[in-house]
Amino acid sequence: MTEARNPNTEPDWSEYRGVLVVVEQREGKARPVSWQLLGIGRQLAQKLEVDTLALVMGQDVEHLAREAISYGADKVYLADDPVLKDYRTFPYSRVCLELIREIKPEIVLFGATYTGRDLAGAIATHLPTGLTADSTMLDVEPPPSRLLLASRPAFSEKMVATILCKKYRPQMATARPGVFDALPRDPSRQGEIIPFRCPVKEEDVAARVLDFIQDEQKVHLEDASVIVAGGRGLGSPDGFKMLKELADALGGVVGASRAVVEAGWISHDHQVGQTGHTVRPKLYIAVGISGAVQHVVGMQNSDVIVAINKDPSAPIFKIAHYGVVGDWSQIVPAMIEEVKKRRGLLPVEKA
Amino acid sequence: MLHIVVCVKQVPDSREIRIHPKTNTLIRQGVPAIANFYDMHGLEEALRIKDQHGARITVITMGPPPAEKTLKECISLGADEAILVTDRKFAGADTLATSYVLAKAIQKAAEEFGPVDLVFCGKQTLDGDTGQVGPGIACRLDLEQLTYVEKVVRLDVEKRRITVHRHLEDGVEVVETRLPALITALQEMNKVRRASLPGMIRAARYKPIVWTVKDFSDIDVSKIGLKGSPTIVAKSWVPEQKPVDGEILEDTPPEEAARQLVDKLWETELPEKLGWDAEREEVAP
Ligand SMILES: Cc1cc2nc3c(=O)[nH]c(=O)nc-3n(C[C@H](O)[C@H](O)[C@H](O)COP(=O)(O)OP(=O)(O)OC[C@H]3O[C@@H](n4cnc5c(N)ncnc54)[C@H](O)[C@@H]3O)c2cc1C
Ligand SMILES: Nc1ncnc2c1ncn2[C@@H]1O[C@H](COP(=O)(O)O)[C@@H](O)[C@H]1O
User: I want to staple A180 with a disulfide (CB 3.0 to 4.6 A). Which of A40, B25, B66, B186 is the partner?
Assistant: First the structure.
């Protein structure tokens, strides 16, 4: 029986040191969440007085190892191998497992992306260890405790829960894209790149990636710095054309309330809120959106919230930093003009 | 014949859970228990494979006895057998302990009803919301792991190969692999059918198979329930609504309002935050 184990005596974890970030890439391009994780990972590492480590896997991805240093890694493990060309759970998880067993980091972070969740779920089970999904806050207790405090939304964003993993190492978490800030890229930063072998041979991998069908139309709400979202107040699907123009001028993307997604004015990809995406852009502009609680939970953590609504009592104004009471169809065109002017995007007037 | 296992969890409909405005605690009362809807898309896909190729479908749930209701629902839709894995000792499980028990149950189902070719899970649960149990099971049973599947494109029963569309942030990945495999299902995969009348009659009479800890010959009790769960919830709280004292413009002509608004955004250092500084210098006279 294993009953005898006294839960109060903490095992000795002194072998486990360092914060490891698993960098996610596709076709040699890193996902922004990887650099965001290095930003927060470095903060944790500094509190723990350990190194910030990164793992880059892929084929011909050495440039990403250098990028990882520019974004805050002290040491980067680089597994560069043809077997790792496309993401596949088996070879990728084997590389991670071998590295984790060899270097023994105390914390391992992944992006809470489709790939990051796929990979982290496999690794946590193999090790085994605890894994907190979808974290939106990460902190550590200072030494000697060194515990990772991973907090995440629970009950459809209505609560936040802090999850601990006391009995196993490493402590693992996936973290939402767009929540943590990347450090400014500094190409002059120094760090070490350490090659790491891929333990898997192609003939041992059953899965084949036959194709990738890129979806150019797809929006990346989670990665966007600016979102211009429209609701039923737009009156018709046509309104989104103008929102797109404002979003383009601001270098952003278009979001939507559920009411308009259900009306079929725009696809579900664009929906913000409880049953859509949770976003945290630098700027969120809500146009003709009333601000129902189910919408607000998905966007209330945006840095700056702007509301445009003709009803001064609309709840969206309660959480807006700036607001205009009025008809969007008059205000938005004037904003587009104004933004383009300031960004120098207006064509030079011909005499 | 193919043997397909579908993992279905009964969950409180967390969308219906409210927070008590005074005590800041969850109001669970009156919150309906439903079948996790992603899992039902997994069941539907299994049923479609059964319709096309013939298959035996076993549904497994781990949970308290009332979860029987969800199992009967699965039977009414066309599942062949439904297993309730239930025991106080399983309670308090996190994803690691859950995937351990479900993997044991799938193994036992394989021993009793034949080797398992495919396992379906949902993308994630409404209450746990992690999507980790599926990969956990795949890892424990050495199944090919196919997560976030929006379409089964091809199933070659003879060659034991399967091709699926996996949903990613920026597109769709077409992956082909061997059986046995585990698929986690997205809503987009299919439209769940309605129960037929014979299905409902069968479900009404059906008694799910019940397995408790004692029914497993080789379960390691240190790996189940609360004790087998490495993660613990230290605390939970209701996030504070940041009090915002916003500047709201009223009765301002639209052009004027737009100009003031953009002024404000520029004052918040938006261009710096968005990395437009360089560009601004170029533009500046
Ligand atoms: C379980 C559940 C989950 C949900 N999940 C989500 C979710 O994920 N996301 C979500 O958004 N909603 C969600 N909802 C729905 C939500 O409750 C609201 O119904 C929805 O957000 C309302 O959308 P809206 O603001 O576009 O429409 P409305 O509430 O109809 O608001 C339209 C607004 O436009 C304003 N307006 C009208 N004309 C103009 C004009 N010319 N100029 C300026 N303003 C104008 C009006 O004053 C009004 O405030 C959910 C609901 C439930 C029950
Ligand atoms: N207690 C359970 N019983 C049956 N299936 C489960 C259980 N918990 C999780 N699952 C399956 O695993 C999937 C992912 O769950 P989760 O990791 O909790 O988000 C679910 O969609 C179910 O298919």
Answer: A40
